[in-house]
């Protein structure tokens, strides 16, 4: 079948293609890292190397249930859509209970099936915040003020397909069938969002890796994310979508002639993260229709794409011995961005309220003094 690209074809295609947007090359080794510590007293994850291995969809689903069962006060799950093959798209909602309305952080992994390191990172991220929120005062504070909405695998159909055998390992797209007589399968979900859809860096050939679909939101997975973000857009402080590879952070927009209104802030956030060791690279091959661009378009202020290890030596087939260091450095980066988003929202607001209060009191005092 034409859509079943051989491994060599994929490797040659990957080697000669550039799937970038505005990019800031991140020397991830300059970021402080957190030591990986496995969960203790756990049934399914008692193995010391659980978070240093890749897991198929059945294992990830069982792990999600385990996280809920062992952390019932802070972890719940939510089904917010279905894939083409009628599998539930499920996220974990993590946060301490609150009587008031909370702000949110969105993170999704596995929008591209072959990027196995992405779901591995989502699992690691969940493990780390659950491990540290009782002892780390900052994480605890953020868990009180924020809810984390984390989708470990978005492209479930494609991810399952990538585990079938050696010939399907590098599958990228969804698994919806082609239309109009096309015998190939799949749409690139990260080209299918309603954000300058179909304009640059995409293909209308349904056999192409970067096929953007017949129209924006033609794919149920993209619609599910769109609907969820639309309902939550006023509360989401940061949108993080996790990919590989390249060791870069990408910012909106993918279209070469459009920049986010807070472009400078996005760049400065990354510069702080990397200790000013970033190098701006205007993409020679931008693309449109990404989830990152859609998130920024609907008003989510901080929207980033993480491109995890490596820089091409292993590509999408990153060895398992690199999972832990990859997750450590990515966690440090995500933690930095989330902390920035949290502090900007809560401390800036508190400072504004305090300043307003003092202005009001001062005005009242001056008025009283004049009357006296």
What does this structure look like?
The protein is of the alpha/beta class and 372 residues long. It has a single domain, classed as 3-Layer(aba) Sandwich (Aminopeptidase), CATH 3.40.630. Helix content is 36%, strand content 14%. It has a 9-stranded mixed β-sheet, with helices on both faces. β2 and β3 form a beta hairpin. It is globular, with a radius of gyration of 22 Å.
Number of structural domains: 1
CATH class bucket: Alpha Beta
Number of strands: 9
Report the CATH superfamily.
Zn peptidases
Main beta sheet: 9 strands, mixed
Beta fraction of the residues? 5-15%
Do you know the CATH architecture?
Answer: 3-Layer(aba) Sandwich
Q: How confident overall, as mean pLDDT?
A: 83
How far apart the termini lie comes to: 91 Å
GO molecular function: metallocarboxypeptidase activity; zinc ion binding
Organism: Hucho hucho (huchen)
Pfam family, one: Peptidase_M14
Cofactor: Zn(2+)
Name a few traits of the molecule.
372 residues, alpha/beta, Aminopeptidase, nine-stranded mixed sheet, 36% helix, 14% strand, globular, disordered N terminus, disordered C terminus, hydrolase, protease, membrane, zinc ion binding, metalloprotease
Task: Provide a concise account of the structure shown.
By secondary structure, this protein is α/β, with parallel strands linked by helices. The chain has a single domain (67-357), classed as Zn peptidases (Aminopeptidase), CATH 3.40.630.10.
List the helices and strands and how they pair.
Blueprint: H1 7-15, E1 23-25, H2 57-70, E2 75-82, E3 88-94, E4 103-109, H3 117-132, H4 137-145, E5 146-151, H5 156-162, H6 220-232, E6 236-244, E7 248-250, H7 263-273, E8 279-281, H8 291-297, E9 302-308, H9 323-371
Family: Belongs to the peptidase M14 family.
Protein name: Carboxypeptidase O
GO molecular function: metallocarboxypeptidase activity; zinc ion binding
């Amino acid at each position: 079948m034409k859509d079943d690209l051989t491994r060599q074809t994929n490797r040659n295609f990957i080697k000669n293609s550039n799937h970038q947007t505005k990019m800031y090359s991140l020397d991830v080794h300059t970021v402080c890292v957190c030591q990986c510590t496995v969960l203790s007293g756990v049934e399914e994850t008692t193995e010391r190397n659980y978070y240093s291995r890749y897991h198929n969809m059945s294992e990830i689903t069982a792990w999600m249930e385990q996280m809920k069962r062992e952390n019932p006060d802070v972890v719940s799950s939510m089904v917010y859509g279905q894939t083409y093959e009628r599998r539930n798209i499920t996220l974990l909602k993590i946060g301490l209970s609150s009587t008031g309305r909370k702000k949110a952080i969105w993170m999704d992994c596995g929008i591209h099936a072959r990027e196995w390191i992405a779901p591995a990172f989502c699992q690691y991220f969940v493990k780390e915040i659950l491990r540290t929120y009782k002892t780390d005062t900052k994480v605890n504070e953020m868990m009180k003020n924020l809810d984390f909405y984390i989708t470990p695998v978005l492209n479930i159909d494609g991810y399952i397909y990538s585990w079938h055998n050696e010939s399907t390992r590098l599958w990228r797209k969804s698994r919806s069938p082609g239309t109009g007589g096309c015998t190939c399968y799949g749409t690139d979900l990260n080209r299918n969002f309603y954000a300058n859809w179909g304009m640059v860096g995409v293909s209308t050939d349904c056999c192409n890796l970067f096929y953007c679909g017949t129209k924006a939101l033609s794919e149920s997975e993209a619609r599910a994310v769109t609907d969820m973000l639309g309902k939550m857009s006023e509360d989401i402080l940061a949108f993080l979508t996790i990919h590989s590879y390249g060791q870069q952070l990408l910012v909106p927009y993918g279209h070469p002639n459009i920049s986010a209104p807070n472009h400078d802030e996005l760049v400065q956030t990354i510069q702080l993260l990397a200790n000013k060791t970033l190098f701006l690279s205007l993409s020679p091959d931008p693309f449109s229709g990404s989830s990152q661009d859609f998130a920024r378009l609907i008003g989510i202020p901080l929207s980033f794409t993480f491109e995890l290890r490596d820089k091409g030596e292993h590509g999408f087939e990153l060895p398992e011995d690199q999972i832990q260091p990859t997750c450590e450095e990515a966690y440090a980066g995500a933690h930095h961005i989330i902390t920035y988003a949290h502090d900007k929202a809560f401390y800036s607001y508190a400072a504004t309220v305090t300043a307003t209060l003092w202005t009001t009191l001062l005005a009242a005092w001056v008025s009283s003094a004049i009357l006296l």
